[in-house]
Amino acid sequence: MKRFLSFIICVIAVLNASAQTVNVETKIDSIQMFVGEQVHLTLTVTMGDKQHLKMPYFKPSQYITPGVEVLSAEVADTTELDNNMISVSKKYTLTSFDEKLYYIPPMTVTVDDKKYQSRSLALKVLTVDVDMKHPEKFFGPKDVQDNPFQWSDWNLTFWLSVFMVLLCALGYYLYLIYKGHKPVTVSLKMIKRLLPHQKALSEIEQIKADRMVTSENAKEYYTKLTDTLRKYIEERFGFSAMEMTSSEIISRLQDTGDQKMIDELNELFRTADLVKFAKYSTLINENDMNLVNAIEFINSTKVEQQTQEVVKPQLSESEKKNKKSRKWLRVAITSIVIICVALLTYILYTMYELI
């Protein structure tokens, strides 16, 4: 049993040691190049994720080997692998200006204070053949050439242009509809509102015209006369005379005129109440006197203040719908114009960038 356990421990130790094996590789994307061109050398180190790595450092324009310069080095890229292993890659940009086959020595890395080397590489640098016998056939550098047309560059611009044209057509169609809907004109009328005493005197004149003073129906006469006075008092003095009794009205009017006028008005209301509720019979001269008293009361308490009233005509249902549709058409047309302007600006800017 002890031997078996020892064997298992040894196997685990060997597997663990093999799992932490460090592997260093280098590769170059091209083994040959023309003078002044650039190639990339990639250094890859595979090791355990707990190990510490130190990769070679080159200053800009430092030679990795005589004749081959290191222009730059990218930041190392780390990739996680299985079995607690990681892969660290770093790319170096190389160039050369002398025609030759170069030997690139192995690159040395340090892992946990132990050095490891990659394999060596080769790089062949070529020059451009020049026909010295026919120098007239040597052409200098050419001007900047336009890039070939690619649909992918213009795809979005094209479809946005189509969409903008369709929006413009829709906006023009809505404009024609908007122009065809005649606007609803609302004219405000200023009318002179009759003053309370004017309306009251007008109604009394109508009572005279109807000869109600000499009519046998005294109840109707006094009802219309007192109603006219009640309306006048309500509008002139500002209290609800139509809902008050005769005594309540006289009580409210005590401070608004002379006592003789109030007494005459009180006599008028008392006679009217007797006629309407007690079937009291009046004489024609009594009716005339009450009518004159009513006119005198109105003339003595009237206020000459001409007022005007603004009358706004009511719109029909069709006019309301027409007005509402014109409002929404204006909103839609304005929105389309704003969107088209924004699209046109973006399209022109994109075309400027592409051209």
Describe the protein.
The chain is α+β, with helices and mostly antiparallel strands. It folds into three domains: 22-127, Immunoglobulins (Immunoglobulin-like); 152-187 and 316-355; 191-309. It contains eight helices and 14 strands. A hairpin with a 2-residue loop joins strand 5 (62-65) and strand 6 (68-73). Helix 2 packs antiparallel against helix 8 (317-354), helix 3 runs antiparallel to helix 7 and helix 6 crosses helix 7 (284-301). The protein is rod-shaped. The two termini are 82 Å apart. The model has no long low-confidence stretch (mean pLDDT 81).
Compressed to H and E, one letter per element, the order equals HEEEEEEEEEEEEHEHHHHHEH
Terminal-residue CA separation: 82 Å
Structural class: alpha+beta
State the share of residues found in helices, binned by percent. 40-55%
State the major sheet.
6 strands, antiparallel
How many domains would you count in the coordinates? 3
